[in-house]
Structures are given as structure tokens and as C-alpha cells.
Amino acid sequence: MTRRPYRELVVHARGGGWGTDREIDGHDPVAVIRGTDFAAVRSGRTDAVPRRWEKRSLIAPRRVRPGDVLLEISGGSAARGQTTGRSLFVGPDVLPAFEVPVIPASFCRLVRFDPTVVDPRYAYYGLRDMYLSGRAGDYENQSTGISNFQFGRFLDAELLRVPPLDEQRRIVAVLSALDDKIEINDRVVTAYEELLRAEFQALTGTGGASVPVTDLVDFNPRTARPDPAGAPYVDMAALPTHVAGIRSWSHRPPRGGSRFRNGDTLLARITPCLENGKTGYVDFLAPDETATGSGEFIVLRARPGVPPQFPYFLARDDRFRGHAVRKMAGSSGRQRVSATDAADFRISTPDPQRLAAFGERAGAAFAHMAALLTEVRALEALRDTVLPELMAGRQPLPAPAPACTSDGTEDAGSSVYE
């Protein structure tokens, strides 16, 4: 089977831009997708993608089209073992979600493939395999603390198995079926959150009498000691930025930091994590189990009579987050908000009946969201297991669907896998 360098498959590659944050002559509005936006865009969330103004003459060669791939070429995190080389496939449903042209950010590169030789999504799955296997790290160098992906070296050195197009498309069909189900689950979770955030704002934004938020929520409450032999541990990287569910955690002997239990909310208190929205709802522990996490978390817990999801939506609320950001203190780049300062906040007194109704709806939604996320983790594990096998040609493919003959009967034909 032919293995070809990516250079022979790419027909257009262009670095991204960043433009300016204001309207000036000769510039047009664009949406700029960063590597940090890949997961959100893949799940249908485009609101956090920056809108900028780019020089008009630079938009056309950078403008993203359906079938393009965006490749992260700078960034990564050596501390977390995360290399550059993450990628995003731009399917036909991505661009209509934006009201302006889309370009990649300056730390990304637009890559366009020759569809007569390679199915673009098949080439994308080759990049996913490169990243998940760790091969992307082979093309990195370090510059002033930032990892840089050597794109030219990658084009010549990274080889992709290129079977006939019909086989490529069958491989894509298997992998995209898993990805599409993951995406559907993520979109349902996003819809739940948007509806409940709107309800929370209506519940707490009616004006009138207000109470200290500490009447409803405890900040860094006392929590039982974790098992000294080992306990679940959540680091800052695992805290989501847009949705409640925490997708990953590890186990380790407790060594200080924050303590929490099911029903608690974790709020990042340090810059830029607070500004970026890092917040998560804890629902993955065993009953009465205590977990630990980063010392840069503030733990929020509902007081008696308050739904456990209430602190989570408080932490997501723009009014509260703005208050917390304004209360940050410390040296540039290492600013934090203390739990005491974050708790110095007043909130409109929620009507008890409406609060109870909100709790019922939020509880049912969060139970469904947790089930969807459990399914997502299983699907992701399956996809990441079969991906390298399919790309290497080691995993047999399902037989192609039989064609219909002119009289309407099925023609079984033959298969290269028989």
C-alpha cells in the first residue's frame, strides 16, 4: 500500500492572522479560530471565537472553506505533556454558524488537500493519529518557552497510507459515525446549559431585595478528609470552560489543595483561567467520597434548601464572574481572587417556589448530561482505539453496501476483504 508524504497531498497551506480589535480602513470583520477553540467549534459552540478586523487583502488566502483542516503550529504545554499538532476538520455545518468570514489564528495553519488523491477527512484522521500517537512531538522545537511545530519538516517526514478513495471513504464513515455521535451528545449538553443559564438569570436578575450570596452558597466549605491511600484528583487542565461536566481526572495520594464532593462546583481563581471560564460541576465520585484538586480552585457548595446546581450557574453568571475578576489581586500574570473576596457579592432574592422548580429541572438535566458525557468518554476511547488500526490498514472494514442492479435486485459484487 502506498504511503505518501503530506507534501504530495496538500494543495494549499497558509498561516493565520490576528488582525486588530477595532475597525480601521482596509480591514473587514472576521472570526479567528484559535487552537483553544477547536473543541468548542467541534461541538457547535462559536460564541467564544474572537471576532477581529483583518486586512482585506489577507482574508482571501486565509479564508476557511468546507473540507479544510486547521492545524495548531504553536502553543502546546510541556508541563501537561500536550504537544502542538491538534487539528480541526471544517465540516459543511461549521461555517454557517459564523456571521463573517473565518480565518485561522496566527498560531494555526490552514491546510487544504487534493480531493482527487485523498479524502480531506481521511487526511484529517491521519493528523489525529499523528497527534494521539505522540508523533506530533517529533516535529516540535522550543522557542522562548513556546513549542513550535515545524510544518515544513512535517510535510516531508510524516507519511500517510493512501489506499484507493473508496477505501478511504469507508474508513472515514466508520470514524465519523463515532465523531458525529460524540458531537450530537455535546450539542445536547450545550443546549441544556444555555437554557438553564437563561433560567438562572431570570431567577436571580429580577431586581428588588437582595441578599449576600453566602446566604445561598458556601465558599470553600469544610469537607471530610480524602482516603490517604489515594483519591480522585482534578487538575486545572481538566476543568472545562463552557460546560459543567469534568471529563477527566486521575488518582493519587492527597497532598493538599482543594477538597470537594459530589454536587460541588469548582471555580478557577487565577488568571487567565478565571477569565477563560474554567468551571466544573462534580458528579463523578462515589457516594461520600472526597476528591482533591488544584489549590487554585474555589469550591462552591449549595446551602441547605438550595439546589446543588445553583452554585454552578452562579459561577457561570457574567455578573458574578465580572465581580470576581475585578477583585483579583497580585502581580501581573499571577493574579488571583480569594474566596472571601469572591463571596463578597449580593444577589437578588430568588422566589422559593421558582428556586425549587429550577432545582427540579436542573437536576433532571444534569442527570441526563452526566449520562451523555459517560457515553462520550466511551465513544472517544473506542474511536481512539480503532483510529490507528484503521489508518494502518490492520482493522478489517465492513463490506461495502451492495449495489442495486437495473431490475432492483441486489448485486453482492465482490470485496477486497473477502
UniProtKB/TrEMBL annotation:
<keyword id="KW-0680">Restriction system</keyword>
<feature type="region of interest" description="Disordered">
    <location>
        <begin position="393"/>
        <end position="418"/>
    </location>
</feature>
<dbReference type="GO" id="GO:0009307">
    <property type="term" value="P:DNA restriction-modification system"/>
</dbReference>
<dbReference type="InterPro" id="IPR052021">
    <property type="entry name" value="Type-I_RS_S_subunit"/>
</dbReference>
<protein>
    <submittedName>
        <fullName>Type I restriction modification DNA specificity domain-containing protein</fullName>
    </submittedName>
</protein>
<dbReference type="InterPro" id="IPR044946">
    <property type="entry name" value="Restrct_endonuc_typeI_TRD_sf"/>
</dbReference>
<dbReference type="GO" id="GO:0003677">
    <property type="term" value="F:DNA binding"/>
</dbReference>
<keyword id="KW-0238">DNA-binding</keyword>
